[in-house]
Specification:
Enzyme class: ligase
Mean pLDDT: 95
CATH topology of the largest domain: D-amino Acid Aminotransferase, Chain A, domain 1
CATH superfamily of the largest domain: ATP-grasp fold, B domain
Helix content: 25-40%
Distance between the termini: 42 Å
Strand content: 25-35%
CATH class of the largest domain: Alpha Beta
Number of helices: 13
Strand order of the largest sheet: 3-2-1-4-5
Pathway: Purine metabolism; IMP biosynthesis via de novo pathway; N(1)-(5-phospho-D-ribosyl)glycinamide from 5-phospho-alpha-D-ribose 1-diphosphate: step 2/2
GO molecular function: ATP binding; metal ion binding; phosphoribosylamine-glycine ligase activity
Low-confidence stretches: none
Number of strands: 22
Catalytic activity: 5-phospho-beta-D-ribosylamine + glycine + ATP = N(1)-(5-phospho-beta-D-ribosyl)glycinamide + ADP + phosphate + H(+)
Protein name: Phosphoribosylamine--glycine ligase
Amino acid sequence: MKVLVIGQGGREHALAWKLAQSESVSQVFCAPGNAGTQSEATNVAINVSDIPRMVSFAKEESIRLAVVGPEVPLVEGMADALREAGVAVFGPSKAAAELEGSKSFAKQMMWKANVPTAKSETFFNFEAAEAYLEDREEQPLVIKADGLAAGKGVILCDTKQEALDAIKSLMRIKEFGDAGSTIIIEEKLIGQEVSILAIVSGSTIIPLETSQDHKAAHDGDKGPNTGGMGAYSPAPLVTETMMDEIIEKILVPMVNVMKIEDRAFNGILYAGLMITNQGPKVLEFNVRFGDPEAQPVLMRLKTDLGELLLAAAEERLESIDPLEWDERPTVCVVMASEGYPGDYEKGKVIRGLDEAAQLSDTKVFHAGTTMQEGQVVTDGGRVLGVTAIGETIGEAKLKAYQAVKCIRWDGAWCRKDISDKAR
């Protein structure tokens, strides 16, 4: 079958790479793709939000399965339009994608489903949020933009002044545009974060292997939040008993409540969790593969990804055999542009990719790259996801950083401690 992967980041490169290995897949297209996806797929110059052109292309090429990578086209209704055109789609409807598109909506669903999460309040104007903070005693809080902000609309605040500055940044200065018109103020949960990704279709839920992201920009989880500076899989923190609890108390109730709300879920349900002293609590829900979590998780998957995603899209997921996994752990290190997650320059020539590609058990996934005059250049804040597999977490980390050392461009940087929490 022909498959269309929609998106242009590291997640989409990983999906295209894994789908190209599937016996069930004859050809992979990636729209718009990047400098890396063209090695595994045929890039198509269509913007991720151009729904009419995407539908036309899918029909012209007789696409059997469309896999929508990023959250923005899902929230805008890409999956609905493709389904109406007769294309099988792995990705939730616009109604179901609101679970990521609006954090306040997600909170409402969690309360209805009795899913454990942080206590929070939602505010629609600056004055009300300011008054709420002024009346509270000093305590660590988290301020979140309600809408989509490329994984960066979450501000951790240890003092009241930091919280006041955060709501001003979101609601007055509009740092993330309309995404911050509504905000959520919630208690700051203490613990370690883990990412739980599950393939959902109808009432069938198949959890994928666990992973742990690194959101903060700098070593030791310091600095501003980013879209993710690296990840590893599995996350030893999540025991078998804990996974059973997560399925029972979080995944199943959310899938059920979405069905009750006439927003039946199809695609990836991603639960970002904090493992607290009281057990797992939900920080956020996403409705697509995580980026960078997709890279280390998909590197470990042995099951035919094309067959798996098509079964989910066609609502026959219950017929799929248990997933097969490589038991070895994987580590993904994100290499970023100077200035990220703030302002950064594009167009820097990337050297050493061929050298890194020669290393065993390693794959360099492109995130923010493009081709310019025959050379691979930077085209985003997060540029590459250097991913390796090893007998141990330590070995996988060593291999990933050996590949990182091969690659260079003006201003390239990365965290040096990805996966250290797993030891």
